[in-house]
Amino acid sequence: MPGTGIDFIQNGIGHGDVADRLIACGGDPGALRPWVGKDGRCYATVNVNGTIKNVALTGNATATLRPDDWKKLDEVIIKAAKPRLKAVADLMGGGLTFNIPNGMAFSVLQTEKMGDINEASVSMDGMRENQNDRPEFDTDLLPLPIIHKDFSYSARNLLISRNGGTPLDTASADLAGRRVAEIAEKMLIGNSTIADQYKYAGGTIYGYTDFPHRLTKTITSPTASSWTGSTLVTEILAMMAQARAAYQYGPYALYTGVGWEQYLGEDFKAASDKALRSRVLEIDGLTSIRGLDYLSGYSMILVQMTQDVVREVVGMNITTIQWDTHGGMQKNFKVMAIMVPQIRADFNDNCGIVHATV
Predict the structure, then answer these.
(1) What is the chain's Cα-based Rg?
(2) Which of 211, 232, 215, 218 has its CA nearest to residue 357?
(3) pTM score > 0.90 for this model?
(4) Which residue in 247, 314, 287 sits closest to 95, CA to CA?
């Protein structure tokens, strides 16, 4: 009967509609990455009670790709995604992440921000009365949406490729991986037209440039007649002073808009043998300077690289799933990820992000 499907669970794997299969497997995307073993049988690699296992599929769940096919597809997608993830890569490389196992099973992350307590007393005998207090807490909710992009192949394309006639065209997979990474990066910066200030269940996703409690500063455009390399150094030092005044003491990363690249490569001063970028990196407390493709103009962002200021919440790394339509004649793929920035301020709204614009 047209439009009729069969859904069932066997060996811990759900079969049928894509969403139902994910739900049946507790959100494990491995259920939608079936592969053909050397014995010709269909398998899926899934998490069974905390252990990764290869489980044989039966019934109407058929696999199309072999393990090497999945490996090639994943390599293409991850390779395309990596260059787009600059600010996100800094967080993940610096250990500023919060991993949620089985992130498909959660729609929001609930966290708390804590206030401070009063100073300690100083006395010779320890008997001076001190205020007995405790920190105050407030609750924050962070939505956990899925970033995703689809592409597909016809069954005939796959058969031609498998028979050695023509290599499988992975351009669509490349572009899908790139688009997913771009949204994750823009979401962290705070300028995604799709995910900008994404709201759900009373929580909001903010980035560096739209977080309400970020510090702001006006800096001089490098196109101004009075501007020199020393002007930039002085203004970066002022940005760091702003952060320290908000009790954010570093270490700091500096992100620059696309307009700064040509100036950072110039000499710091006339007849100098040192580039402006090198001089900026000599500032104590500044660990890196990186240009961001999606930060426009002459904007700059100074970020204290600590967990209490920013972290990347990862419910699912970039992965690809597959399902069939049109009676199996079309093989659909979805590149998906749950990667959400969590920008944080303390109970008193002090934040370690300084957003500078000209």
Answers:
(1) 25
(2) 218
(3) no
(4) 314
Q: Phi and psi of 89, rounded to 5°?
A: -65, -35
Write the secondary structure of 216-227 as one string of H (helix), E (strand) and C (coil).
EEECCCCCCCCC
CA-CA distance, 149 to 25, in Å (whole number)? 22
| Contact yes or no for 219/297 (Cβ under 8 A) | no
Tens digit of pLDDT for each residue in 15-70? 445 565 666 666 667 666 766 666 666 666 666 555 666 666 554 445 666 677 77
Residues written for the chain: 358
Which residue carries 């990667």 as its tokens? 339
Q: What is the pLDDT of residues 302-318, one digit of tens each?
A: 999 999 999 999 998 99
Q: Which CATH number fits domain 210-310+349-357: 3.30.2320.10, 3.40.309.10, 3.40.30.10, 3.40.470.10?
A: 3.30.2320.10
CA dihedral 19, 25, 28, 30 (to 10 degrees): -90
